[in-house]
Amino acid sequence: MELEIYQVDAFSTRPFSGNPAAVCITPQGLETALMQQIAEEMAVSETAFLNLADNNLRWFTPQAEVDLCGHGTLATAHILRQNGRLAQGAAITFHTLSGPLTATAVPQGIELDFPLLTPTMQPEAPAELLKALGLAHEQVSGYGLFGAKQLVVVEDAQVVYALKPDFAALRALPGRGVAVTAPGQNEYDCVSRYFAPWVGVNEDPVTGSAHCALAAYWSTRLGKRSLTAYQASPRGGVLALALREKGRVLIGGGAHTVLVGTLRL
């Protein structure tokens, strides 16, 4: 079996930045076990699998399937546009574990229509979580949950940049992923980093799905419906966020294809 495979740096317009995603496009669906093996082989934070027969889109880390992935969806739409399957200004709707997700080819890149995930704020963050992240209690101004994931708010962007979590300690705690965020500087409304050692991704370079919650939190706090977000991982990435009606958020960004090949199985 031969499959077309790509690697795309998403939420960036240049190589070696943003979040790398593998994209595998097939005329028919693949077995789940095979997709998981391919994702492990590709060894990037997410591998996206698009079945052209029904536009079913699935995403796998090297260790697990996930139910929502922004950069994998953006990378898939980028490849469809690159290959002439998605025209400029046109949209495509993918069928996913998170319901229908639409991607539109816009001049600045790809714009995703995703669900807005309003975090449920809690009285305080678990002490064990803060210790594993390397945060002191007094540095934290807010803590919330969005699904199985966690949001930690601090007030100094430099604290976010300087984080050095203990990933073994994080894995020993309940969780799926944790975003640490702060008010932005200069052109950015907010900055963040995202850690998910529970699914085999110690630090995700740029996380579209986490920004479904970050958009909700910062929009309310700043009183703005359009935001520019920066994910301050070593690779870094910029996301344009715009709240829409009926609990949706538009997440926009660029992409750059770094690898085109054939997967031989």
Number of helices: 6
Range of strand content: 35-45%
Order of helices and strands: EEHEEEHEEEEHEEHHEEEHEEEE
- Please tell me the overall pLDDT: 97
- Calculate the terminal CA-CA distance, rounded to whole Å: 5 Å
Give the C-alpha Rg.
18 Å
Shape: globular
Query: How many beta-strand runs?
Result: 18
Helical proportion? Answer: 10-25%
Structural class: alpha+beta
**Major sheet: size, sense and barrel closure?**
12 strands, mixed
Poorly predicted residue ranges: none
Structure description:
The chain is built from 6 helices and 18 strands. With 265 residues, the chain is α+β, with helices and mostly antiparallel strands. Strands 6, 7, 8, 9, 10, 11, 12, 13, 14, 15, 16 and 17 form a 12-stranded mixed beta sheet that branches. A 6-stranded mixed beta sheet has the order 5-4-3-2-1-18. A hairpin with a 4-residue loop joins strand 3 (46-51) and strand 4. The longest helix has 13 residues, at 70-82. It is globular, with a radius of gyration of 18 Å. The model has no long low-confidence stretch (mean pLDDT 97).
Descriptive keywords:
6-stranded mixed beta sheet; 265 residues; 21% helix; 12-stranded mixed beta sheet; alpha+beta; globular; 6 helices
